[in-house]
Amino acid sequence: MNRALPPLAAVRVFEAAARLGSFTQAGAELGMTQAAVSYQIKVLEERVGAPLFVREARRVRLTPIGQRLALDCTSALDLIATGFASARGTAADVLTLTVIPTFATRWLARHLGEFQMAHPDLAVRSSISRDMVDLERSEFDVAIRAGTGDWPGLTSHPLIEAVFTPMVSPDYLARFGPLSSPRDIVSLPRIDIDDPWWQLWFERAGVDYALPEIPRGSRMGGQDLEAIAAMAGHGAALLTPFFYRDEMERGQLIQPFDILCPAGRAYRVVYPTARRNVPKIRAFRDWILGHFPQAASPQPPSHGGAR
Fold first, then answer.
1. Which of 225, 221, 257, 220 lies closest to 241 in space, CA to CA?
2. What are the pLDDT digits (tens) for 167-191?
């Protein structure tokens, strides 16, 4: 829709002058000189094609055309102000998060209620996704990601190091017997067998192993699904022990070896550096870092995924 709008700066000046009955007072309210106010009024009068004010010795008064226009301008500016106030209030009251599935299901879902109780004025909306969302151009305020933290324009704080090791179910051990060495797993069922992390873990364990040249089997694509498959006895899965402590304590998952392989990355809380002092972002950052006191200093924005 093509709107033939006058300059909005001139409309704002006209509305103030009409409301106050003075170019001088309008200039004082808007931080402008009287000459600048007179110029903006002249711009509108040329656009309308008729005088909007009668200039008198010490005051100005609206012409009949000016009176009609003043009512509409005041209503329009009030409507805009109300809309912005509503949007600003909504933005301030809602914290939007984008979270990778493993962290969302294995940690955040269990603890987010604590944050909401501590901040009852904030509504939290979470989206679970493996996609790398552009925080500077999306509606999301904060992300939980896995990576090295070198993301342009973003500040990130490491929460936990991403390490992985094979885990199996009791049924798995009952079927295939005890695992006496890492080499035993090579010939046994494994979930996501062509995942490059298997090669990294076997190398860490001192086992010669090469990934299959041809992809074999299905891919789960994430720890959250791999853990479910492992607990069902379908194979050994590479998991981060931090997320599965409860299942290990209940005996649903077993970590047969103490060998942990670092992924060279960490699970991180991330937000735009330019918005680091927004109260809701600062509140969430401080709360989640309080749960991970071992977290290191923030990763500064770079100028240049884990499972």
1. 257
2. 999 999 999 988 999 999 998 999 9
- Separation of alpha carbons 95 and 142, rounded Å: 8
- At 287, phi and psi to the nearest 5? -65, -50
**206's torsion region: left (phi>0), alpha (psi -120 to 50) or beta?**
left
β-sheet with 154-167: strand ranges across: 123-128, 94-99, 142-147, 261-272, 154-167, 237-239
Place of tokens 């009024």: 41
Paired residues of 152 in beta bridges: 302
Angle at 262 between CA 270 and CA 290, to 5 degrees: 40
**Residue 262 DSSP label:** E
Exposed/middle/buried for residue 250 (C-beta within 10 Å: 0-12, 13-18, 19+): exposed
Per-residue confidence band for 305, with pLDDT thresholds at 50, 70 and 90:
very low
User: Is the pLDDT score of 299 beyond 80?
Assistant: no
- For the cut 60, the answer to whether the pLDDT of residue 56 exceeds it is yes
Which residues, listed in sequence order, are joined to residue 270 by a DSSP beta bridge? 143, 156
Spatial CA neighbour of 226 closest among 200, 183, 190: 190
pLDDT in tens, 127-152: 998 888 888 878 899 999 999 988 88
pLDDT at position 266 over 60: yes
Q: Where are the alpha helices (DSSP H) in the chain?
A: 8-20, 23-30, 34-48, 64-93, 101-103, 109-118, 170-176, 196-204, 223-231, 245-249, 279-290
At residue 127, the pLDDT reads 92
| Rounded Cα distance, 235 and 21, in Å | 81
Structural contact between residues 254 and 174, judged by C-beta atoms closer than 8 angstroms: no
CA-CA distance, 78 to 87, in Å (whole number)?
A: 14
Which domains, and CATH codes, for the chain?
8-90 (1.10.10.10), 100-307 (3.40.190.290)
Q: DSSP E strands: which ranges in 116-248? A: 123-128, 142-147, 154-167, 237-239
